[in-house]
């Protein structure tokens, strides 16, 4: 994958974190980026996590939840000791993270946003999340994902 790195893969390499990259041919007609990744890679969907950017009390934050669930906005707000959360405008999410929608990684974001990882991630030896572009997933231990993003772990999936 020479020349096809992303800020997420650069961070993992720089930190010398054990990880595995998995690529697949992205189909722009697929309705769900996360479910597409699970299907293409033959992974149980509950191990694939999507990165969603929301606003908590007017400030951007990131929720990392299984692709089989939805982001519980009240749970996200509570985990970050906020009052109110709503989904961010896509353009704001892309500008803050440096990634395009469908390829937003919780790792290596342009602006370091608060991150909350759903507690369900902790039951797996490894989980999958976007490596920074559509069609590229990174497999990593939940503990490393939490450490590298300085995340809070909480129940934020509905």
Oligomer: single chain
Cα distance spanning the termini: 35 Å
Biggest sheet character: 8 strands, mixed
Strand segment count:
8
Low-confidence stretches: none
Radius of gyration: 14 Å
Number of helices: 5
Strand content: 25-35%
Q: Short summary of the structure?
A:
This protein has 158 residues and is α/β, with parallel strands linked by helices.
Structural notes for this entry:
By secondary structure, the chain is of the alpha/beta class. Helices cover 25% and strands 27% of the residues. The protein contains five helices and eight strands; from the N terminus they run H-E-H-E-E-H-E-H-E-E-E-H-E. Strands 1, 2, 3, 4, 5, 6, 7 and 8 form an eight-stranded mixed beta sheet that branches. The radius of gyration is 14 Å and the shape is globular. The relative contact order is 0.24. The mean pLDDT is 93.
Q: What are the key terms here?
A:
158 residues; alpha/beta; 8-stranded mixed sheet; 27% strand; protein biosynthesis; lyase; YbaK/aa-tRNA-synth-assoc-dom; EC 4.2.-.-; YbaK/aa-tRNA-synt-asso_dom_sf
Draw up the topology in text.
Blueprint: H1 7-14, E1 20-23, H2 33-41, E2 48-56, E3 59-66, H3 73-79, E4 85-87, H4 90-97, E5 115-118, E6 127-133, E7 136-140, H5 142-149, E8 152-154
Parallel strand pairs: 2-6, 3-5, 5-8
Antiparallel strand pairs: 1-7, 2-3, 2-4, 6-7
């Amino acid at each position: 994958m020479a020349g096809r790195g992303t800020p997420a893969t650069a961070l993992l390499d720089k930190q010398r974190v054990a990880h595995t990259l998995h690529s697949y041919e992205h189909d722009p007609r697929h309705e769900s980026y996360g479910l597409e990744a699970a299907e293409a890679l033959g992974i149980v969907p509950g191990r694939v996590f999507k990165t969603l950017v929301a606003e908590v009390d007017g400030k951007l934050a990131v929720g990392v939840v299984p692709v089989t669930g939805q982001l519980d906005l009240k749970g996200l707000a509570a985990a970050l000791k906020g009052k109110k959360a709503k989904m961010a405008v896509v353009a704001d999410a892309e500008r803050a993270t440096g990634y395009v929608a469908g390829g937003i990684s919780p790792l290596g974001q342009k602006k370091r946003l608060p991150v909350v990882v759903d507690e369900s991630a902790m039951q797996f030896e490894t989980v999958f999340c976007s490596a920074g572009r559509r069609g590229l997933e990174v497999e990593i231990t939940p503990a490393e994902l939490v450490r590298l993003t300085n995340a809070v772990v909480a129940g934020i999936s509905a």
